[in-house]
Amino acid sequence: MATESRVVAGAARPTGRRGAELLRVEGLKTYFFTEEGVVQAVDGVDFILRRGETLGIVGESGSGKSVTSLSIMRLVSPPGRIVEGKIIFDGINLLDLDPEEMRKIRGDRIAMIFQQPTTALNPVFRVGDQIIETLEIHQGLKGEEAQKRCIELLSMVGLPDPQRRMRQYPHELSGGQCQRVMIAMALACNPELLIADEPTTALDVTIQAQILDLMRELREKIETAIMLITHDMGVIAEMADSVVVMYAGQVVEYADVQSLFTDPKHPYTRGLLNSMPVLGDEREELEVIPGTVPSLINPPKGCRFASRCSKRFEKCDQPPPMIELGANRRVRCWLYED
Ligand SMILES: Nc1ncnc2c1ncn2[C@@H]1O[C@H](COP(=O)(O)OP(=O)(O)OP(=O)(O)O)[C@@H](O)[C@H]1O
């Protein structure tokens, strides 16, 4: 693959703390106060992300994945608001910071890349100027030094002819090239945490593989922890160490990637895996989970998945608690009560 070792230069951060807790989300609730009612988009989400780890967040459209990541970045805008919970990043509750302190963390220590890189880049500025601005603000680099580092970053992420590329505007680049620019911009801050929200969904399959490769290399070389949001179980299988499965604003299962794929517990997780194509598969048709995600304005009082679940029984009319099945294994389902 064309991305070998480009990330290494100038980016090493000798933390030596791989595996230590970096981010802890506790009881996070983010609601949207709309005219139609209160949308309980994220409703009591908990998880931990360790240094150097890739945590996959998976779930159908509307399950609350993006709102969770925007909440961590404190970028939820009205009518949305974080109403409860803690977001502990390296020992600091981000919800206690004033906007200026948060801006600094957002640029210096946490970076985010989005599904549509073209919308995240400013169309009226050259891509080089946008990276240089990030370097000036967050790394204190100036003039020639910032310029040199910008070229270095663009070649690290595999953009050929970086001198020319940096003078181009976003619309002059392809989707894959824009995503590389976004990653270069994220790298400019040498972040401890990279939040990647569907980073490859808008790209074709070959480019998708290159971008995933680049992210994997990042994680190996600079020990960036990655929170990877996707609806694609294939991407999860390839990239994640552990996985949070979200459904209708809640975490329904948490497991290491191996256990999730070999022994999924929640009926929803099983449904997701059964709807995934597998090489050499002899099934004539992929299974689909019947029904749709319930409205989050007045979500069901009991299990939110119950109306679509083939294992449903009376108890499911009550909200299931999160049940611990092991040190790193949790499921929100009455089937595992004992
Ligand atoms: N600005 C908003 N106003 C009202 N509701 C919103 C707003 N933004 C998000 N929501 C609602 O919050 C819920 C969670 O949305 P979110 O974007 O986090 O889902 P997602 O899992 O990331 O889906 P996708 O994969 O489609 O991006 C959805 O029901 C959505 O309609």
From TrEMBL:
Keyword annotations from UniProtKB, A to Z: ATP-binding, Cell membrane, Membrane, Nucleotide-binding, Transport
Bilayer-crossing regions: none
GO-annotated biological processes: peptide transport
GO molecular function annotations of the record: ATP binding; ATP hydrolysis activity
Pfam annotation, one family: oligo_HPY
Lineage: superkingdom: Bacteria
Family according to the record: Belongs to the ABC transporter superfamily.
Listed name of the protein: Methionine ABC transporter ATP-binding protein
